[in-house]
Amino acid sequence: MKIAMTLFKYFPYGGLQRDFLRMARECADRGHQVTAFAGEWQGDKPDWLEVRTIASEKWSNHGRAADFERKFGRILENEPFDVVVGFNRMAHLDFYFAADNCLIMRDRARHPDWWLKLVPRYRVWHRQERAVVSLASKTEIMYITPHQKRDYQTVYHTPEERFHYLPPGIDVACRRPGNATEIRAVKRREMGIGDNEILLLLIGSNFKGKGVDRLIRAASRIPNTIKYRVFIAGECSSEEFVELADELHIARRITFGGGRSDVAQLLLAADLMVHPARDEATGTVLTEALAAGLPVICSEACGFHNFVTESGGIVTSEPFNQAELDLNLAEAVEPLRLGELKKQAIAYSAGADFYRRAQVAADLFEEFYDSQTTTS
Q1: Residues 63, 128: one domain?
Q2: Spacing of C-alpha 284 from chain mean position
């Protein structure tokens, strides 16, 4: 089976990108020929995957997205594939992996309809969403949280049979190992974290969207009796957040660590993940943390907040209130409360299954191919 997978941008540390790579690898391991089409590719190219870049001279994000869509459509006219899987909204897809929430619902909450029709970027993005989710589309939608499906159906009345639920699908390397204590000790020494310091962790490549400023403000309210450090991992400009930490007099406690290849070790080294995101369709990093036995505080905006609740973690309500996060964090880092959160998270990690997303997706692609072959 020849499978084409499309995404506008690949870089090694994004959640969407890691989902793409795991699905591509699962398909390749099953003997299928997988070709990735990307507008931009950063990092190494696996030797088991054919990667083709579709360059664009457009300067805007929406311009590049529309250009990618047009050029990929021309490729399909001359080179047919059995299954086309997209990790961004666009035309020409047999399957769309819904890593993002319903765009038009979000935008209508922020702007009037007349404005959305006038602005070019909204016109492009909404047209691409309609190409995937509308009644006229035939694209199958792989969704990952119940509210995604609900919102798409509310706006577009998309038929039930076009939705396919995918369970979480994190790297098994994040599963808590038997020697977790030893790995934790080594990593903390490497990071210069003292035995009596609490390490707060946030991982994400969009600092504003992930709520880094919210975390910094909440950390500044932690009582002086608590010794703590904050480690923020991700590829994003940190300048404005460093300035905020300076203003709040906690810059010495904050470390921006850049993109990381040692996430599994960071999860074991940390004491608490804090992820007060503004808009997070899922929050794969939350399941990675829970699989490692790391307790989590997150916002209700995170699609996977249900797993945090199940694990005994803390979920701040929406609409977001900074004072609520401040209080939750201050209480969570108290020794007795933190010990309780850790025990609950470790117990939850022992029975959690967060690893089958790629396998379920590959099953769907094979079933689709079989059905197309039968009907033809």
Answers
A1: yes
A2: 5
Together in a domain, 105 and 234: no
- What is the C-alpha separation between 236 and 205, in angstroms, rounded? 6
For the chain, the domain total comes to: 2
Q: Retrieve residue 75's tokens.
A: 């490729």
For residues 269-287, b (16+ Cβ closer than 10 Å) or e, as one string? bbbbbbbbbbbbbbbbbbb
Tokens describing residue 343 = 């025990």
For residues 125 and 204, membership in a common domain is answered with no
Burial (CB count <10 Å: 0-12, 13-18, 19+), residue 301: buried
- 212 and 266 assigned to the same domain: yes
pLDDT in tens, 243-269: 999 999 999 999 999 999 999 999 999
Q: How many CB atoms lie within 10 A of CB 144?
A: 21
Contact 228, 197 (CB under 8 A): yes
Residue 7 φ then ψ, to 5°: -155, 145
**Tokens 């930490």, residue located:** 245
pLDDT of amino acid 74: 97
Task: Using DSSP, state whether 203 is helix, strand or coil.
Answer: strand
**DSSP bridge pairs for 142:** 97, 164
Provide the pairing of β-strand 163-165 with 140-143. parallel
